Amino acid sequence: MEFIDHGIEEYARLHTEPENDLLKELVRETHAMVLQPRMLSGHLQGRFLSFISKVYQPALILEIGTYTGYSALCLAEGLQQDGRLITIDVNEELESFTRSFFDRSSFKNQIDYRIADAAVEIPSISGPIDLVFIDADKRNYALYFDLVIDKMRSGGLILVDNVLWSGKIIDESAKDKSTQALRDFNTKVATDSRVEPLLMPIRDGLFLLRVI
Prior knowledge:
Cation-dep_OMT, O-methyltransferase, alpha/beta, S-adenosyl-L-methionine, globular
């Protein structure tokens, strides 16, 4: 679903900082070699993630859902000099592809890429966490939120992708489990007193949750 007129979105893209060469190559290779390339964050959202990270200058970022590494590379741009980004994904088949791009980036030594079940891995991670990006299996969004919220520093930020789910979120006829899980999640965090919620119609919907 297109939330914004294509011409307006293209105009915005042309007036936004361009991707670096490594990110452009990652986009090309993902479209050529990997199934479901739409899962990439993309230029505008990637620059948004980079911008937010640069503003926050996090010491520790946690990403749940790596895919081919585009969003991780964008988020890493704002890391403190000795900062670290932990990114977790369960898909072993993409590991070599994704790691090859991490290894060629200037953040090679700051990205901790883990092939694991996030629900099992997150409890082993020590906080405080400054910034979290959740972009994984939608049915477990609420679980991931519950696992990270007490590890966040005050003022930290949790970003959650795909919360409008191609518009299905407001389609009363859409009753599949993923859509309903996202509806429940959106209601849950919008009413949680531990965070300040802001849902933005960026790409497929991006929830910004500032931890109080």
